[in-house]
Write a structure and sequence with these properties.
The protein is an alpha+beta fold. It folds into 2 domains: 251 residues, 2-Layer Sandwich (BirA Bifunctional Protein, domain 2); 92 residues, Anticodon-binding domain (Rossmann fold, 3-Layer(aba) Sandwich). Helix content is 36%, strand content 21%. It has 15 helices and 16 strands. The strands form 3 sheets. The chain has an 8-stranded mixed beta sheet. The protein has a 5-stranded mixed beta sheet with strand order 13-12-14-15-16, sandwiched between helices. A hairpin with a 5-residue loop joins strand 3 and strand 4. The longest helix is centred in the middle third of the chain and has 18 residues. The radius of gyration is 28 Å and the shape is elongated. Homodimer. This is Histidine--tRNA ligase.
RNA sequence: GCGGAAUUGGUGAAGUGGUUAACACAUCGGUUUGUGGAUCCGACAUACGUGGGUUCGAUUCCCACAUUCCGCCCCA
């Protein structure tokens, strides 16, 4: 049988997988220090969990969802984003109850699925790193969320990202702004690109984001969301941006910033990376915002919330380019080479003992010639080779050799239990 | 969903309608058996994404499909 992975999926093989581990370990450590704990929710949910929260008319729901009927006739969907499932879990487990400390802060690193045409940094199965904070509407929680995104990217070594932020208001504000955009663009309809003529009917906000020159000339005079915000939203947005300024976090206010999901209600933001070697136009690596009504949508109590999601594949692309040192391959600590009668057992015993001391140790299970064993040690990028030979063994020693400079010393068998000391002497 | 390009061994690749598919790297074996990253010698594609067609004959021409990549839509 000739097998092939499904379109838009990838195998992450050894060599690559350790890079992911590295990024994920740094991320987990970072978020744990910030008081976020991991949540794991199902890979699939009832279809409605995603269709209702993301917006029935959003592209994600209309054409990108992996959904199917299971054998029990249930309409199931693979998660196309992380937030909805977490909100569902929050409500279903009654985490809004008094037993839980508020805000309730969680993170996840999870596989996510969208039926799309694959491209660089876009797959059908991909991974999102996300955080969500439930229970506070204070600007501090918005600022902290943005700050964590900023600091995490810095800690990982992303160099040239730009933070774009904007504010969407409540339901009424969005409605009024939506209408204003339609009123503005409708008379211009014939001059707009085909895509934007279509957007006028589906999602006029997206016209603001158009890359088509025919559209761009009309954008500067288009209505700005900021002029439609209510006083509270405006004051809060100012408060947030002021704090970012005080924290030394650079940002640009981006009137044209819109996000693909319907549930955002307040501040929204994207961290974008411009790298022409990677993408033709600046690409979002991290995006998020405030969503104060989603919990209610799931029949939970009124609960403000804010969060973000990182596209892990895109993050990896950027890091491999901008911080390759992070992925340096250091190889193993010891390779055990053995030669002569009766050295096999001593070899595997020594491997066991050294591993117990915390070292990465390997040896040649195929027992090839000494020369081949050394070659294998080189291939494994071993720092040291310990040669266990029958002649030496009779005298109670093994040979320890540092491969970088070839220096070799005999080591008494009894001392193998204290490898750190021996290496210090070498 | 729309438009474009690509598809030869483990890797990078050259190449032609017709008897041995170049070259390089890597790998494996050897260079007389206790020490590597050097040199030298040798081995290594039943076959050129899959299926069909044209042809006496196709890896080379045509068609379809698949996958990958690029741009758009959209998004992480």
């Amino acid at each position: 049988m000739r097998v092939q992975k499904p379109k838009g999926t990838v195998d992450i093989l050894p060599g690559e997988s350790q890079n992911w581990e590295k990024v994920e370990n740094i991320t987990r450590s970072f978020l744990t220090r910030a008081g976020y704990r991991e949540i794991r929710t199902p890979l699939f949910e009832n279809y409605e969990v995603f269709s209702r929260s993301s917006g029935e008319s959003s592209d994600i729901v209309e054409k990108e969802m992996y959904d199917f009927q299971d054998k029990g006739g249930r309409h199931i969907a693979l998660r196309p984003e992380g937030t909805a499932g977490v909100v569902r879990a929050y409500v279903e487990n009654k985490i809004y109850g008094p037993d839980h400390v508020k805000p309730f802060n969680v993170y996840y690193i999870a596989a996510t699925f969208r039926y799309e045409r694959p491209q660089a940094g876009r797959q059908r199965e991909f991974h999102q790193i996300g955080i969500e904070s439930f229970g506070s509407d204070n600007a501090l929680s918005d600022v902290q969320t943005i700050m964590l995104g900023n600091d995490l990217l810095h800690e990982l070594g992303v160099k040239n990202f730009e933070l774009h932020i904007n504010s969407l208001g409540n339901e009424e504000v969005r409605k009024a702004y939506h209408d204003a955009l339609i009123n503005y663009f409708t008379p211009l309809k014939d001059k707009l690109s085909e895509d934007s003529q279509r957007r006028l009917g589906t999602n006029p906000l997206r016209i603001l984001d158009s890359k088509d020159e025919r559209d761009k000339e009309f954008l500067p005079d288009a209505p700005k969301i900021i002029d439609y915000l209510d006083e509270d939203s405006k004051a809060k947005f100012d408060h947030i941006t002021q704090m970012l300024k005080d924290l030394g976090i650079d940002y640009v206010i981006d009137d044209d910033l819109v996000r693909g999901l319907d549930y955002y209600t307040g501040v929204i933001f994207e961290f974008m990376v411009a790298d022409s070697d990677l993408w033709a136009s600046p690409t979002t690596v991290l995006g998020g915002g405030r969503y104060n009504h989603l919990v209610e949508e799931f029949d939970g109590p009124e609960t403000p919330a804010v969060g973000f999601g990182i596209g892990e594949e895109r993050l990896m692309l950027v890091l491999q380019k901008q911080n390759p040192d992070l992925f340096a391959d250091h190889g193993i600590d010891f390779f055990l080479a053995n030669i002569g009668e009766g050295t096999e057992l001593k070899t595997i015993e020594t491997a066991r003992a050294l591993r117990k001391q915390g070292y990465q140790v390997d040896f040649d299970v195929d027992q090839k010639k000494l020369k081949n064993q050394f070659k294998k040690a080189d291939r494994l990028k071993a720092s040291y080779v310990i040669t266990i030979g029958a002649r030496d063994l009779a005298e109670g020693v093994v040979q320890l050799k540092r491969l970088s400079d070839g220096k070799q010393i005999p080591v008494a068998l009894e001392k193998l239990g204290h490898m750190a000391d021996i290496i210090a002497e070498l």
